[in-house]
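debug: dumping io for the single-chain case to check the tokenizer round-trip. Nothing else runs in this session.
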Amino acid sequence: MHFILIRQLRRKLVFSYQNHPTNYINLYLFYIFMKKFSGLTPKQAEERLKEYGPNELKESNKFSAFKILLRQIKKNMLIYLLFAAALMSFFVGKSITGYAILGVIVVVVVAGFTQEYRAEKSINALKQMIMSRSVVIRDGREIKIPSRDIAVGDIIVLRTGEKIPADCLVLEANELAVNESALTGESKEVNKSASKDEKTQDKNNLLFMGTYIINGRCIAEVLHTGMNTEFGKIANMISTAEKELPLQKKVNDIVKYMTVFTILVSLLTGFIMLVKVPFSYELLVEILIVVIALCVSAFPEGLPVVLITILARGTWNMADKNAIVNRMSIVETLGETTIICSDKTGTLTKGEMTVKKIYLDGKIIDVEGTGYVSKGNFLYTNQNNQKIDVGKDKDLNFLLRASVICNDSRVERIDHTDEYKVSSGTPTEASLLIMSAKAGISRENLTFTLEEELPFNSKRKRRTVMSLEGKEKYIYSIGASEILTDKCKFIQNSGRTIEFDEVQKQKIADTNEELTQHGYRLMAVCYKQINASKKAITENNMVLLGLLAIYDPPREEVPDALKLCKEAGIKVKIITGDNKDTAKQIAKQIGIEGEIISGDEIEQLSDYELSKQVNDVTIFARVRPEHKLRIVNAFRQNGEIVTMTGDGVNDAPALKQAHIGVAMGKNGTDVSRQASDLILRDDNFATIVYAIREGRIIFNNLQKCVAYQVSINFAQLFLVFFAIALGMPLPLVAMHILFMNLFSNDIIAIALSFNLSSSDIMKLKPRKKSGMLNKQLSAVILTAGSLICIVSLSVFYYTLNVLGQSETVAQTTTLMTMIFFAIANAFNFRSFRKSVLGRSLFANKYLVWASVISVAMSLIIIYWTPMNIIFETAPIGLFNIALAFFASLSIVVVFDGMKMLSNRRRKGLISRQKNALS
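debug: decoded output
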């Protein structure tokens, strides 16, 4: 089984039973052991899940189609305005208009529900991707299952960094410590031990859902699941109100300001109409309908739907590229990132650790092969690559055996090939198993019993075990070479143990330096034989058996990702536990050079001193988790927006403190994933850069949609306002405005949200924190809205007074002008820098289809007689269509000219900056 706890007990009992088979006490103990630790059968687990329910907490905000439908009515002011307009229409006898408005209400609700349901469904699917899993023992076999499928009575296996999935009783434990802050609010370490018997339950042997293991490992029996846990009881008493995202707040603020402004302008328009025309109740109702229609025209009801559509699409794109958004609130912050603090191992490198060299008996041994493939020979480097017979080389054989015994990782063979995958544990320890497998040495063909263990952690930087092998007992220790060499008094040399004197120490130091300068990570393998009666591990007077040089090749895609970061104005910092030489060499291989500082040097600096130096440092070596937290705080103090990666249990504070905490999906712990905002399923640095790019695209597209919607809505509002103020007839009636909002503005805005990114999105400097509408964008909106309003009003005046056509024809022509303007404006807002024709018109196929649908629907209500009655339109000639179309092109001409001037100024500024630097 997975941990030494079960393996140790089982081996002891089997050994005792085999040697004394007639001893009924041994037989009974063996039976009890197998019964206790074999776990539930699949059938028992199924029955208990039916009885107690799934192991999950009830969510008050759980994904629900009914709630989404209800939200379309409850939170949409547009519905109430339209309903009021429908009632007024029925009141004055305009039943056709009333029914038409009710039809509009149905379409608004259905359209909003459909779009939001699809978006919420996508976001909910992303949540399922990061569902936690746990190791349980069923029918005597270890299996990994979703934590929600854990049943009462299950035997679960927990290790450092894992979140406890249910309330449990500890059966066996090793150096077990738990953080119970989720329940108690106190972050102090709580030691746990195994219960003496199943009836004895107290705080020392109980584990609680929501807490997590910070040290050691254990085997536990599940007592309570889901809402029956202590955590579930607390959750049941807490109202989990849905939190508003920062982006939602910005969009909602725009909606609020526009709503207030719109109501004021609409009321002013109604007042002017009331003053200019003799009073009648029918006129009053008509004015109220116009006022409501104006409110509807400028009320950006589509923006919240556009927001969730953009977020859903963007986060799904990230997930497709292996970046899972854990907290939606960071989507906006991604585009503001100025600093990426990245781990080296597995993020900048492949994470496929390979032991390439062994230092043994004063010689360097080459180990053939790369990755997790158990094929390769052992060769003497300085003896013409002479192949070594591992069976005859006692010291090498001993080192390989020690590498298997003092190891907590597990590897599984892939489809009966020589290739393996890591099923549990760290890639570093897995590389030791693969190295030994090349010599045919594995756990299965070794006979040993692990009696004690001191697990590896970030402070100790080594793993130490006590192993009983027949009648002999050994202590093995594997870890950082500079730490373990200090524990050694002797060194292995050609089958003999000699004193580890200054000469030998210098040889080791020289070898260490030489190998680390080539980018290898060095680990020492030590041992000592002890008296079989000893029960406690001691780590002094050890024998240095040899050094292992482990290589982790850089990822091929990292240099391109780093180049992209440089162009985007994002600084990349390497944070690693490796020593300076190894870190510097790997950094050089991927194209990063700069000042380097170690964790020990960081400890000598005050927080103020660190903040002054931190921006100039590129590589942080031999860094511990507490150093990471100080580094993040130093960058934040300097005003940087920090993205920090982490995978260990102790990385959680730094991940929480960073603006964006990034956890590893493959090799990270539950604790780091829970503390993170973004999870990398492939542990790849390039995925972080992609996520930042997608974050920029999301915000950029949202800005475009907001600018488009606000400009077109304000144009509609002021078109009617100025017409009334100037004593002109209404250029658009209420049904025109409702039609535009439903079949033009909203569907085009949603289509615009699918806009492809600008090719230069990662050539811009990080966006500074600001509102959705900055000064430049507000100026663009004002210009666009004013131009649309003036030109449309001119078309109405020209059609009515110059061409002498009827009021209905003039209004219909104005409606078509506004429809064409909505389309032209959307194509204009596809890019803030490129001209309309500078990008393919078909780059956004959704926008093309939305435009076609909008025009087609407009032609239907103009040329189909029944629709003329409902929407108060009239057929218009080809000249009027052409007039409307070419009038709308004015916005393309004006804005393409503005973009050209802006681009020239930008190029001139860049040229002057380059000349100043040269």
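debug: round-trip ok. Residues 387-542 form a domain with the Calcium-transporting ATPase, cytoplasmic domain N fold (CATH 3.40.1110.10).
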